[in-house]
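User: Could you go from structure to sequence for me? I need the amino acid at each position, not a summary. Structure tokens:
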């Protein structure tokens, strides 16, 4: 079996990573903006990109079930292999939960939800307690996701500093 991820896996990985980083940047900025067109536009972009991550992750997960990851090097300590697998599995879960809770929060906010300008069915009522409830879960998920990204990136970087360690290259096209 190859020791590298396939080009498709790399493309999906780096596209998702870029979108997630962008969503954090927009998410944190938009909630601080005063009510007005800039805030509305930032929320709309955040929702559209977030829904893109949802679709991308569902598709990626389906693809991943049919394409096993390259076997980890046998030199990798067992605890690191277990931690890496746990982090990867939790990523898939959170990258579905995060956008779904955002979508639910938005559905009960009294504002319409659009996907890049395309209005989505408005089935939710304006319900402030439900809106607040899903917002809290959305924020909680984002904190968990952030901790996971920290662990994941620290793990990846820790392999760069070890001479001869090629683990990061498994996810790099060169
Ligand atoms: C910020 C958002 C990120 C997310 C959501 C994310 C998610 C993931 C997931 C789900 C996998 C497992 C792929 C699979 O087997 O299906 C993975 C693998 C990997 N990621 Fe990330 N990642 C992110 C950022 C990064 C960054 C910034 C780096 C590099 C510094 C990185 C380096 C890697 C590497 C090297 C692997 C392969 C690990 C292995 O050898 O098995 N990731 N990532
Ligand atoms: C992977 C996808 C997503 C990520 C990483 C993400 C991340 C974030 C972050 C970091 C915040 C700021 C939280 C804070 O105040 O500290 C936020 C807020 C928010 N997000 Fe998302 N989000 C995602 C998807 C979505 C989706 C799909 C929607 C709706 C369709 C959505 C709707 C919202 C709303 C309405 C807020 C503002 C909550 C408030 O009023 O405080 N998000 N998001």
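Assistant: Here is the amino acid at each position, in order:
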């Amino acid at each position: 079996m190859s020791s590298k991820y396939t080009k498709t896996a790399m493309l999906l990985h780096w596209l998702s990573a870029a979108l997630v980083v962008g969503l954090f940047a927009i998410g944190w900025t938009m909630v601080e903006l005063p009510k007005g067109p800039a805030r509305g536009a930032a929320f709309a972009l955040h929702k559209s990109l977030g829904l893109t991550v949802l679709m991308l992750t569902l598709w990626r997960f389906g693809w991943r079930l049919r394409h096993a990851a390259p076997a980890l090097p046998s030199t990798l300590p067992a605890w690191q292999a277990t931690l890496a697998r746990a982090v990867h599995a939790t990523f898939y879960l959170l990258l579905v939960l995060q956008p779904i809770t955002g979508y639910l929060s938005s559905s009960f906010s009294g504002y319409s939800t659009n996907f890049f300008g395309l209005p989505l069915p408005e089935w939710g009522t304006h319900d402030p307690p439900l809106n607040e409830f899903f917002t809290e879960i959305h924020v909680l998920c984002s904190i968990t996701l952030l901790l996971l990204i920290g662990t994941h990136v620290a793990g990846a970087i820790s392999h760069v500093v070890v001479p001869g360690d090629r683990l990061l290259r498994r996810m790099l096209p060169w």
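One structural detail worth keeping in mind: Residues 7-171 form a domain with the Fumarate Reductase Cytochrome B subunit fold (CATH 1.20.950).
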